[in-house]
Amino acid sequence: MKIIFDTDGTLTDFNEWIQKYAIPYFEKNYGYTVVYPDELEIEDMLDLKKRLMAEKGLTAEEAEKEMKMILDKFWISIRFIKFSLFSRFREGVSKLVNKFIKQGHEIQVHTSRAKTTENNIIGEIARKFTIWQYRMNGIYLPEENYYFYENDSEKIKGIIKQNPQIVFEDKPEIINSLNENKIKTICVSGKHNFEIKDTKLTAKIETFEENDVIEKMDKLLEKRLDFYTREIESKNFYNIIRLSIPSIMQIFQPIVLNENNLIHTYDEPVIYAPNHRSTLDPLVVNAYIDENIHWAALKRFFDGEDSIFNNSKNKILCKITSECFKKLSYFPIERISDNPNANNFNSLKEMNNFLKINGKVGIFAEGTTRRSDGQDFGNFDPSFLTLAKNTGAIVQPITILWIKDENLKHKLIINFGKPFKIECKNINEAFRHFLEVQKELLEESKKLSTELKKVLK
Fold first, then answer.
1. Is the pLDDT of residue 424 over 80?
2. What tens digit of pLDDT does each residue of 150-166 get?
3. What is the pLDDT of residues 67-109, one digit of tens each?
4. Residue 401: closest CA among 364, 433, 447, 350
5. 111 near 149, Cβ under 8 Å?
6. Smallest Cα–Cα separation from 288: which of 411, 448, 449, 438?
7. Distances (CA, A) of 49 to 35, 71, 80, 153
8. Structure pTM?
9. Computed over its alpha carbons, how large is the radius of gyration of the chain?
10. Distance (Å, whole) CA 423 – CA 394
């Protein structure tokens, strides 16, 4: 999950710092007093531009330049060092952010400190000081995770481009703009944002107390925060076992047809829907696709009663299968034929939740590798299409044909159909389309298999 943090006013108590250091400075040196105490920025609190226009008879453009000079004089001093390096983050911030980092979430910092965008020594110092500020508060992020903007308008564009799941922010105009783009925000309460209320897209917090923040985030994410964490944990485990992919590909050497149809997306949910010929199907298909796919599998594999290794009942292989399936967040499924009281509601609910966070799910809709002699397919269960329609998931049809010829080094043919969405189609129409695609793909694979066997003869 991608989480973006603002700094000033969000992680730091900017209101408090301004009251302590900025207001006394401007009163002492310029005689300026606060006009709008509920504003956040110094220039807005002092109504500085309007004041300069009235007192000095300046035009709006001239007042803008004069105001910049006055603010630069304040900031380009020891005060910026005190502010950027030694102002502490709010209580609980470092603990919470480091927890997200440890869990594997992608953390980014987006800030519109104007000086940080200058291409000179001041800009370089401002950028370094911002990064060091985080480090001095115990938060260590790669430098490429910091994004600097000249103003809030550019910042809003930058955040929208990143398409995060959650943004921690304090400015109402930024929060409102993000919400208009369906980006969810955590608003850190301050006197300048009292008008921001809890909505489906925004939750307000008073402190960074961990349980409260997690509860608010989970509510915004529709109770799916745990699934984001599981997605990361399973992906980390997948990245370990994916080291075996070259060996798997060398052993099975699959022939792949219509590779251009294979969907490649990171910001949409996908349901991979192959036919089912062997317990090795998910192993080989997953190795070729090389994605962290959450497969639906029979409950007996999770219970350590069977293994994916050609159904070997070897206890060690059964244990390996069980542990891998659990760590990869696969879904245990029971067939009615195996258990008349089978209830797969929880697994279906989990599939739905993973798809809602743009996860990848694999479903063998035939439900079994068994079929009568001469029968190309078993009975497909169309319920996966209902799941696809409810979640807006892309359906990726796949057919698998195992080649039964010892003289061929290629053990199977994987054929990818053109992906599709259900959208306005009804389920029956989508199901007929899916079956037609499966049939066409299998016929193509069978034809190639026959030709290969003829060549060997």
1. no
2. 999 999 999 999 999 99
3. 988 888 888 777 777 777 667 899 999 999 999 999 999 999 9
4. 447
5. yes
6. 411
7. 12, 11, 22, 19
8. 0.82
9. 29
10. 10
Spatial contact of 438 and 377, defined as CB atoms under 8 Å apart: yes
Question: What is the pairing mode between strands 255-257 and 270-274?
Answer: unpaired
Q: Residues 298-336, buried b or exposed e (16+ Cβ, 10 A)?
A: bbbbbebebbbbeeeeeeebbeebbeebebbbbbbbbee
The secondary structure of 347-410 as a DSSP string is HHHHHHHHHHTT-EEE--TT--S---TT-S-----THHHHHHHHHTPEEEEEEEEE---TT-S-
Tell the CATH topology of 2-221. Rossmann fold (3.40.50)
Q: Which two tokens stand for residue 337?
A: 């034929």
Q: Which residues contact 180 (CB under 8 A, 6 or more apart)?
A: none
23-73 tens-digit pLDDT:
888 988 988 888 888 887 888 889 999 999 988 898 999 998 999 888 888
Return the bridge partners of 168, or none: 5, 186
Q: Supply 444's token pair.
A: 């193509």
Q: Is residue 196 a contact partner of residue 185, using CB atoms and an 8 Å limit?
A: no
Distance separating alpha carbons of residues 150 and 442, to the nearest angstrom: 57
CATH architecture for residues 234-456: 3-Layer(aba) Sandwich (3.40)
What gap in Å lies between CA 219 and CA 395, rounded to an integer? 29
Domain with CATH 3.40.50.1000 in the chain: 2-221
Residues forming CATH 3.40.1130.10 domain(s) in the chain: 234-456
Q: How many CA atoms lie within 13 A of 108 on its CB side?
A: 21
**How many CB atoms lie under 10 A from the CB of residue 227?**
21
pLDDT (tens digit per residue) in 317-374: 999 999 999 999 999 998 877 788 878 899 999 999 999 999 999 999 987 777 767 7
Distance CA 263, CA 273 (A): 12
State whether the Cα torsion 129-133-135-140 is positive or negative: negative
Kindly list the distances between the CA atom of residue 124 and the CA atoms of 75, 119, 148, 207, 432, in Å, as whole numbers in the listed order: 15, 7, 11, 32, 61
